[in-house]
Specification:
Structural class: alpha+beta
Strand content: 15-25%
Strand order of the largest sheet: 1-2-3-5-4
Largest sheet: 5 strands, mixed, barrel
Number of strands: 5
Distance between the termini: 36 Å
């Protein structure tokens, strides 16, 4: 990232991720939002040509993962390439947990689109409960769906009303 986008890219993305606060939190690898931020930064953040210090116009509006795939296509393992392409194409969304097998998997329905997913996930499936809302990026490849990005907490079921309002 530093070699391609420059040393300011991480700070710019962190500031945007926090929704442009006047006094942003310092970026720290121990920050509780890192499990959500890092995949967002690699796969979804695209430098705005009007609001970035990144000078190379070929990097504007392009996630780092997309740039990597374009520039290093022949060096990337084909299975990894397909997975990374799915990471770039899979949005963050709100998912309602509909079933859980602790330590193995959970089922969830995207609250915004209604799309159901069967997610293979050990750690999160130990703490999730039916009805929880999870703001996450679920990535599917070859019939397997995994949890690529999520904060370290879920939302209680009552928050579904706010998400439905957001959908409207």
């Amino acid at each position: 990232i530093v070699d391609t986008y420059g040393p300011q890219a991480l700070d710019e993305a962190w500031w945007e991720f926090q929704l442009f606060p006047e006094e942003p939190d310092d970026f720290e690898l121990e920050h509780p939002q890192i499990p959500l931020f890092m995949p967002w930064f690699f796969h979804l953040w695209a430098p705005d040509p009007n609001g970035t210090g990144i000078e190379d116009p070929t990097l504007h509006d392009r996630p780092a993962t997309r740039t990597l795939l374009e520039r290093q296509n022949q060096r990337v393992d084909p299975t990894l390439r397909r997975y990374l392409e799915r990471c770039v194409a899979s949005p963050l969304s709100f998912h309602e947990v509909t079933a859980v097998i602790p330590g193995r998997s959970f089922e969830a329905r995207d609250v915004l689109t209604g799309e159901p997913k069967q997610v293979q996930e050990r750690s999160a499936s130990k703490t999730l409960r039916v009805g929880d809302l999870l703001f996450a990026q679920l990535v599917s490849i070859d019939g397997l769906t995994i949890l690529e990005a999520a904060p370290p907490f879920s939302l209680p079921p009552i928050e579904k009303l706010a998400v439905i309002e957001l959908r409207k």
